[in-house]
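Thread: "does anyone have the structure for this chain?"

Original post by V.I.:
We have the sequence but no experimental structure in hand. Need at least a predicted one for the grant figures.
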Amino acid sequence: MAVLRLDRPEVRNAMDSALLAALLGALDELARDDELRALVFSTTSERALCAGADVGEALDHDGGVARMEAFARLYAAVEAFPAPTIAVCVGNVVGAGAELAAGCDLRVGGDNLKLAWAGAKLGVPVGPARLVPLVGLAKAKELILTGRVVRTEEAAALGLLHATAPAAEAEAAALALANEIAQHPPDGLRRLKRMFRELEGTEARVGYENGLLVEFQREGAGLPRR
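Reply from O.Q.:
Generated one for you, C-alpha coordinates below.
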Protein backbone atom coordinates (compact mmCIF):
# COMPACT_ATOMS: atom_id res chain seq x y z
CA MET A 1 0.00 0.00 0.00
CA ALA A 2 1.19 3.54 -0.79
CA VAL A 3 -0.05 7.02 0.16
CA LEU A 4 0.35 10.19 -1.91
CA ARG A 5 -0.37 13.33 0.14
CA LEU A 6 -0.90 16.64 -1.62
CA ASP A 7 1.06 19.28 0.29
CA ARG A 8 0.22 22.86 -0.67
CA PRO A 9 -1.95 23.77 2.32
CA GLU A 10 -1.54 27.50 1.79
CA VAL A 11 -3.66 27.23 -1.39
CA ARG A 12 -5.77 24.25 -0.33
CA ASN A 13 -3.68 21.99 -2.54
CA ALA A 14 -4.58 23.80 -5.74
CA MET A 15 -2.59 22.13 -8.50
CA ASP A 16 0.15 24.12 -10.19
CA SER A 17 2.64 22.84 -12.76
CA ALA A 18 5.11 21.68 -10.10
CA LEU A 19 2.53 19.67 -8.17
CA LEU A 20 1.25 18.09 -11.37
CA ALA A 21 4.79 17.07 -12.32
CA ALA A 22 5.39 15.58 -8.88
CA LEU A 23 2.14 13.60 -9.00
CA LEU A 24 2.85 12.30 -12.49
CA GLY A 25 6.35 11.23 -11.50
CA ALA A 26 5.09 9.45 -8.41
CA LEU A 27 2.29 7.69 -10.31
CA ASP A 28 4.70 6.54 -13.00
CA GLU A 29 7.04 5.05 -10.40
CA LEU A 30 4.27 3.41 -8.36
CA ALA A 31 2.59 1.93 -11.44
CA ARG A 32 5.77 -0.08 -12.07
CA ASP A 33 5.55 -1.78 -8.66
CA ASP A 34 3.89 -5.10 -9.43
CA GLU A 35 3.40 -5.85 -5.73
CA LEU A 36 1.51 -2.65 -4.90
CA ARG A 37 -2.03 -3.55 -3.88
CA ALA A 38 -3.62 -0.17 -3.17
CA LEU A 39 -2.87 3.55 -3.56
CA VAL A 40 -4.41 6.26 -1.36
CA PHE A 41 -4.57 9.92 -2.43
CA SER A 42 -4.63 12.11 0.66
CA THR A 43 -3.61 15.53 1.96
CA THR A 44 -1.49 17.13 4.66
CA SER A 45 -4.37 19.48 5.52
CA GLU A 46 -7.92 18.57 6.49
CA ARG A 47 -9.07 21.81 4.82
CA ALA A 48 -8.82 20.28 1.34
CA LEU A 49 -7.91 17.31 -0.75
CA CYS A 50 -7.61 19.74 -3.67
CA ALA A 51 -9.29 23.04 -4.48
CA GLY A 52 -8.73 22.65 -8.24
CA ALA A 53 -6.27 24.19 -10.67
CA ASP A 54 -4.07 26.97 -9.30
CA VAL A 55 -5.42 29.83 -11.40
CA GLY A 56 -2.99 32.16 -9.63
CA GLU A 57 -0.01 30.49 -11.27
CA ALA A 58 1.72 32.93 -13.65
CA LEU A 59 1.59 31.33 -17.10
CA ASP A 60 1.69 32.56 -20.68
CA HIS A 61 -0.39 30.87 -23.39
CA ASP A 62 2.10 28.07 -24.01
CA GLY A 63 2.52 27.53 -20.29
CA GLY A 64 -1.23 27.26 -19.86
CA VAL A 65 -1.42 24.66 -22.62
CA ALA A 66 1.48 22.71 -21.09
CA ARG A 67 -0.25 22.68 -17.72
CA MET A 68 -3.54 21.51 -19.24
CA GLU A 69 -1.67 18.74 -21.02
CA ALA A 70 -0.27 17.76 -17.62
CA PHE A 71 -3.81 17.65 -16.21
CA ALA A 72 -4.81 15.39 -19.10
CA ARG A 73 -1.86 13.10 -18.37
CA LEU A 74 -2.79 13.02 -14.68
CA TYR A 75 -6.41 12.07 -15.39
CA ALA A 76 -5.24 9.35 -17.79
CA ALA A 77 -2.67 8.07 -15.29
CA VAL A 78 -5.24 7.81 -12.50
CA GLU A 79 -7.70 6.03 -14.80
CA ALA A 80 -5.00 3.62 -15.97
CA PHE A 81 -3.38 2.99 -12.58
CA PRO A 82 -3.14 -0.79 -12.28
CA ALA A 83 -3.88 -1.13 -8.55
CA PRO A 84 -7.03 -0.02 -6.71
CA THR A 85 -7.08 3.68 -5.79
CA ILE A 86 -8.80 5.46 -2.91
CA ALA A 87 -9.31 9.21 -2.43
CA VAL A 88 -9.52 10.88 0.98
CA CYS A 89 -12.21 13.51 0.39
CA VAL A 90 -11.93 16.17 3.08
CA GLY A 91 -12.68 19.87 2.92
CA ASN A 92 -12.58 21.39 -0.55
CA VAL A 93 -12.68 18.75 -3.30
CA VAL A 94 -13.38 21.05 -6.21
CA GLY A 95 -12.69 21.16 -9.95
CA ALA A 96 -9.54 19.16 -10.59
CA GLY A 97 -9.87 17.83 -7.04
CA ALA A 98 -13.31 16.46 -7.83
CA GLU A 99 -11.92 14.92 -11.02
CA LEU A 100 -9.11 13.25 -9.07
CA ALA A 101 -11.59 11.87 -6.55
CA ALA A 102 -14.02 10.66 -9.24
CA GLY A 103 -11.16 9.02 -11.11
CA CYS A 104 -10.32 6.85 -8.10
CA ASP A 105 -11.95 3.49 -7.53
CA LEU A 106 -13.18 4.30 -4.02
CA ARG A 107 -13.68 7.42 -1.90
CA VAL A 108 -13.77 8.08 1.85
CA GLY A 109 -15.38 11.36 2.91
CA GLY A 110 -14.76 13.59 5.88
CA ASP A 111 -17.60 15.34 7.65
CA ASN A 112 -16.36 18.70 6.31
CA LEU A 113 -16.59 17.73 2.63
CA LYS A 114 -17.36 20.42 0.05
CA LEU A 115 -17.42 18.60 -3.27
CA ALA A 116 -18.09 20.49 -6.49
CA TRP A 117 -17.67 20.11 -10.24
CA ALA A 118 -16.93 23.77 -10.89
CA GLY A 119 -15.74 23.56 -14.50
CA ALA A 120 -18.99 24.85 -16.01
CA LYS A 121 -18.52 28.16 -14.20
CA LEU A 122 -15.40 28.74 -16.32
CA GLY A 123 -16.62 26.97 -19.45
CA VAL A 124 -14.23 24.05 -18.98
CA PRO A 125 -15.29 20.87 -20.85
CA VAL A 126 -14.68 18.47 -17.98
CA GLY A 127 -16.66 16.16 -15.71
CA PRO A 128 -18.87 13.79 -17.71
CA ALA A 129 -16.17 11.20 -18.42
CA ARG A 130 -15.76 10.28 -14.77
CA LEU A 131 -18.98 11.35 -13.05
CA VAL A 132 -21.65 9.83 -15.30
CA PRO A 133 -20.61 6.20 -14.62
CA LEU A 134 -20.67 6.92 -10.87
CA VAL A 135 -24.03 8.64 -10.38
CA GLY A 136 -25.91 8.25 -13.67
CA LEU A 137 -26.59 10.67 -16.51
CA ALA A 138 -29.36 12.79 -14.98
CA LYS A 139 -27.61 13.46 -11.66
CA ALA A 140 -24.24 14.05 -13.36
CA LYS A 141 -25.84 16.67 -15.61
CA GLU A 142 -27.30 18.48 -12.61
CA LEU A 143 -24.07 18.47 -10.59
CA ILE A 144 -21.85 19.48 -13.50
CA LEU A 145 -24.10 22.11 -15.08
CA THR A 146 -24.89 23.83 -11.77
CA GLY A 147 -21.48 23.39 -10.17
CA ARG A 148 -23.19 23.37 -6.77
CA VAL A 149 -21.55 22.10 -3.59
CA VAL A 150 -22.29 18.54 -2.46
CA ARG A 151 -21.87 17.82 1.25
CA THR A 152 -20.96 14.56 2.94
CA GLU A 153 -24.46 13.18 3.54
CA GLU A 154 -25.58 13.75 -0.05
CA ALA A 155 -22.34 12.39 -1.51
CA ALA A 156 -22.79 9.22 0.53
CA ALA A 157 -26.43 8.89 -0.54
CA LEU A 158 -25.36 9.19 -4.19
CA GLY A 159 -22.92 6.32 -3.73
CA LEU A 160 -19.89 8.56 -4.26
CA LEU A 161 -18.54 7.80 -0.79
CA HIS A 162 -17.87 4.28 0.40
CA ALA A 163 -17.19 5.33 3.98
CA THR A 164 -17.44 8.51 6.03
CA ALA A 165 -15.61 9.73 9.12
CA PRO A 166 -14.75 12.91 10.99
CA ALA A 167 -12.28 14.87 8.87
CA ALA A 168 -9.40 14.12 11.24
CA GLU A 169 -10.07 10.39 10.89
CA ALA A 170 -10.83 10.17 7.17
CA GLU A 171 -7.32 9.19 6.14
CA ALA A 172 -7.23 6.46 8.77
CA ALA A 173 -10.54 5.13 7.46
CA ALA A 174 -9.15 5.15 3.91
CA LEU A 175 -6.03 3.31 5.04
CA ALA A 176 -8.18 0.70 6.77
CA LEU A 177 -10.12 0.22 3.53
CA ALA A 178 -6.88 -0.01 1.57
CA ASN A 179 -5.52 -2.55 4.03
CA GLU A 180 -8.66 -4.67 3.60
CA ILE A 181 -8.19 -4.63 -0.17
CA ALA A 182 -4.47 -5.32 0.18
CA GLN A 183 -5.18 -8.72 1.72
CA HIS A 184 -6.07 -9.98 -1.75
CA PRO A 185 -3.54 -11.24 -4.34
CA PRO A 186 -2.09 -8.32 -6.35
CA ASP A 187 -2.42 -10.07 -9.70
CA GLY A 188 -6.11 -10.70 -9.05
CA LEU A 189 -6.72 -7.09 -8.08
CA ARG A 190 -5.04 -5.88 -11.25
CA ARG A 191 -7.01 -8.28 -13.39
CA LEU A 192 -10.26 -7.02 -11.87
CA LYS A 193 -9.25 -3.42 -12.52
CA ARG A 194 -8.56 -4.23 -16.17
CA MET A 195 -11.98 -5.87 -16.41
CA PHE A 196 -13.72 -2.79 -15.02
CA ARG A 197 -11.79 -0.53 -17.43
CA GLU A 198 -12.62 -2.63 -20.46
CA LEU A 199 -16.26 -3.31 -19.58
CA GLU A 200 -16.99 0.36 -18.80
CA GLY A 201 -14.83 1.87 -21.56
CA THR A 202 -13.29 4.36 -19.13
CA GLU A 203 -10.05 4.72 -21.08
CA ALA A 204 -11.91 5.93 -24.17
CA ARG A 205 -14.17 8.23 -22.12
CA VAL A 206 -11.23 9.90 -20.39
CA GLY A 207 -9.24 10.11 -23.64
CA TYR A 208 -12.13 11.87 -25.39
CA GLU A 209 -12.57 14.40 -22.61
CA ASN A 210 -8.83 15.00 -22.31
CA GLY A 211 -8.68 15.90 -25.99
CA LEU A 212 -11.41 18.50 -25.52
CA LEU A 213 -9.66 19.92 -22.44
CA VAL A 214 -6.39 20.50 -24.25
CA GLU A 215 -8.18 21.98 -27.29
CA PHE A 216 -10.10 24.33 -24.95
CA GLN A 217 -6.84 25.58 -23.49
CA ARG A 218 -5.01 25.83 -26.82
CA GLU A 219 -7.73 27.27 -29.06
CA GLY A 220 -10.52 28.46 -26.75
CA ALA A 221 -10.83 30.70 -23.70
CA GLY A 222 -8.72 28.41 -21.54
CA LEU A 223 -8.42 28.51 -17.78
CA PRO A 224 -7.76 31.97 -16.31
CA ARG A 225 -4.10 32.84 -16.00
CA ARG A 226 -2.67 35.54 -13.78
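V.I.: this helps a lot. Residues 2-167+185-219 form a domain with the 2-enoyl-CoA Hydratase; Chain A, domain 1 fold (CATH 3.90.226.10).
O.Q.: and The mean pLDDT is 97.
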